[in-house]
Amino acid sequence: MPDVGYLKRVLAVLLTALLAFTVLDAVPRADASGSLVAHGSAHQVWATGLPANAAVQLVNAAGHTVASQHATAEGGVLFRDVTPASGYRIRKIYNRQLSNKVTVHSDASTPWTTSFYNQPISSNGYQYLTTRDGTQLAISVHPPTSPADLPGLPAGTPLPNAGIPYTPPYPTLIEYSGYGTATPKGPENGIATLANLMGFAVVDVSMRGTGCSGGAFDFFEPLQNLDGYDVIETIARQPWVKGHTVGMMGISYGAISQLFTAQTRPPHLSAIAPLSTIDSVATTLFPGGILNTGFALAWAKDRVHDALPASATGGQPWAHKQIQDGDQTCKANQALHGQAVDLLAKIKANSHYIPATADPLDPITFVHKINVPVFLACQFEDEQTGGHCPALVRHFTGTTKKWFTFTNGAHVDSLDPETFNRWFDFLEIYVAHESPLVSGAVIKAAAPLIYQTALGVPGTDLMTLPPDPIQLKATYASAKSAFEKLPRVRVLFDNGAGQTPVTGLLDPQPGNPYPGYEHSFSNFPVAGTTAKSWYLTGGGKLITDGPGWGATIEKFTADPKATPRTNYTGGTGTGGLWGNQSQWAWNWTQRTYGTQVSYLTSPLKTDTTVLGAGAVYAWVRSSKPNVDFMATISEVSPDGKETYVQSGYVRGNGRALSTSTNNVLKQASTLLEPVLSMRLADVSPLPSDHFTKLPIPLYFQGHAYRAGSRIRVTISAVNGDQPIWAFANAQPTSPATVAIAHSASMPSRLVLPIVPGLSVPTARPDCGVLRNEPCRTYKAMSNRSYPAGG
Question: Domains in the chain and their CATH numbers?
């Protein structure tokens, strides 16, 4: 038997030690090794200046340990998800040294103090701006008198300015992103240069945790939004800022950040102008519930790399150069970069819809909070953010001053000449509060140079801006009045088929970003839109007079590896995806027999304009419990050419539709816009012994199918039909046999949004000129058909 007396003595010693440790835990201690300064933030506490990899604890006002972790190799530590309260301290474990007491705040936008908004910011050059929690953000200010050099031009190349003597105070724009935005050498894309030439000062801001900015990176955490608020309020107070209000502008990342920041309603924000943005994370990262390992995952991996402490092997190269050149602030700001959230792990953990995680990251859930004027432009075939941005229109209910432009095209086409004109007018009126008359002359003179060097579009003599009636208004009041009479929604059709506005000269390169024609509307979806159905039937036909009564089954082999992903294979242009590269080098491949089913309408009797979303509904059964499906819509013209229009996606076991508006798109499912549940609880294997209804939501399109053309729908496994969208983890991992039924009881069909009564030019665009709508010779592909029950 054990010695009971001995056990009692040991227990007494342990209890005494535990009591002593508890007392020590509650009593602040310090030593002579130097002060430890903590900072309270929004649900966070952070500190720098710690020993490398030091073990530390966060303790609350009662002295109890809340969390423990190690500092980075650079001596920074960050505690996340901290409950708002006062009295928190950071404690070094090895010597029990305690920091000062700090307060942890909520993520409400109201500043904890406003005194820091009075910090002086120079009107020119690279510098740092301090936010509410003490984090320093790297910024570069480009005044209009010193426009950033156009990429590819020698430093100091004179730019046309029509002799305008720009003097402060300047109308001012903020460009805010996680790229190398604040780099001292000048912005990484041409949009800041455009704004400089328009007479705006531009403040380029690098998000916390990136480049030379302090803090730790997390994808659009609330604190990033508060930083945007603080930047706006600080810059607006500077004596060189006209009217002490600022606007925001930017494309892609710099567009998305505007939506996140503007929802916080900074008092001195005058307007936002996001270009090529997203409506939700899911529609780019998980189209149809399938992980986009092409652009989206690669983009996320780049963000992980860029958030590392700047060095020769990680972080942003410009920040490493700053440190090598002696920038001690940049060096010190790397201390928390190692505390960045693991974005890839976050993506993996949220492969299904979890409202608490997804909703704060989806603009569609919060743009109703934005109360300033908005100009937004997106492309239906955007090869990066995707073609779902138009879903935002109905959610911008917080402002009556809102204008939207949509077109076919690539990611950069939100800066096409027609869209650029309206973007420019908007910024002049709602940020500069001036008529665009004078600055418009500057932009027109600079346009050929801009489009060649900044955007990679060739044809320097002819690539210019079309006439714009708003820019002819002599006064601000008349320009504003005319602009506010414009319809809210503008759709540019046949982008790439238009001609240069230079009178008497032919376009040097068909496919340059000019539309063939346009239509405008008061809202979107357009009033009067009808859902037209074409039913899948035997012989690969799409018919309009009902599904028929004879059941037919057609099969294909679903193999995501059967077709290589569509990609760029060469071509002309200097800008890659930012120029005409996407136009001429999109290698749209044909699928092999048996790896798809294809259906074709009869020649259309009249011009048919499709504008909106749409869907394919297929009754399927599968030899495998999960198959990732893609539906592609194309136009087959009478001359035997086939033009890509749009695609849609769905993961077979995630085919369940939402039964409410509490979903990723915050809208109820309709025939034209089925909304997938994307919840883990709704996952259901595809049946192998009977047919089930499979909805494939299509991304938005704006396309005129001319009379005589035929509409084609192709259903297959994913991969192969859209550039830089790829699905490396697609299901099934080995080929599956998929059967599609069509009968009166199983009406498989294509449903498209038709807007009746719209005029369409009779000239059919040449094969290959439509922006991001590649064209190839049509190849008829018969389906493998079987009788009912086969």
Answer: 4-104 (2.60.40), 119-521 (3.40.50.1820), 530-787 (2.60.120.260)
